Amino acid sequence: YHEMGLYDIPAVIDLILTTTGKKKLNYIAHSMGTTMFFIAMDRHRDLQSKVHKMVALSPVAYLSHVKTPMGILSLIPSVAFTVDILLFCLIYRR
């Protein structure tokens, strides 16, 4: 997955933006696609300005190891569920 995040995701994002003429895109991924996205965003910081929103469905990576308030709150199932619902509403609001 590492090479796909390093090479494929940046190439696909640039191809989509060039083809459509848009400045940003929304990225929706499932499982392995979320890992590839996280790698791409970590290794190619310039891509962050090209992605408007990212939706991670069944992500391979979770926040349980993160020591920030959001990571700590994600350990509480009801809080994690509420955050998921809030993020979903923010992403799909018009």
TrEMBL record:
GO biological process terms on file: lipid catabolic process
Top-level lineage group: Eukaryota
InterPro entries listed in its UniProt record: AB_hydrolase_1
UniProt KW keywords: Lipid degradation, Lipid metabolism, Membrane, Transmembrane, Transmembrane helix
Domain AB hydrolase-1: 2-64
A UniProt-annotated Pfam family: Abhydrolase_1
PANTHER family given in the database record: LYSOSOMAL ACID LIPASE-RELATED
Protein name: AB hydrolase-1 domain-containing protein
